Amino acid sequence: MNFIFHGYPRHKGNFELVSDAVYKDFRAEVENSDLLPAYTSRTGHLDHSYYYIGLPEMLTHLKGAKMLFLGNSRIQFGINDVILKPHLEAMDIPFHMLAFGHGEKSEFAMRLIEKFNLKPEIIVLNGNPGYFNPYLTERAEKVIEEDDSWYNRQSLWLTLFIATLHEINHFMPANKKMIPKYWMSRSRVTGSWQFTESFHKNLKNIEFQALPHCGPLGAKQIENILKFKKRILKLIPNVKLISLQVPFPGSCSERPIQVAKLLGGQAFYYHPDKNNPMATIDQSHLTKKNQNRYTKALADYLKNNKYLSASDKKL
Question: What percent helix, strand, coil does the chain show, rounded to 5?
Answer without folding.
Answer: 50, 15, 35
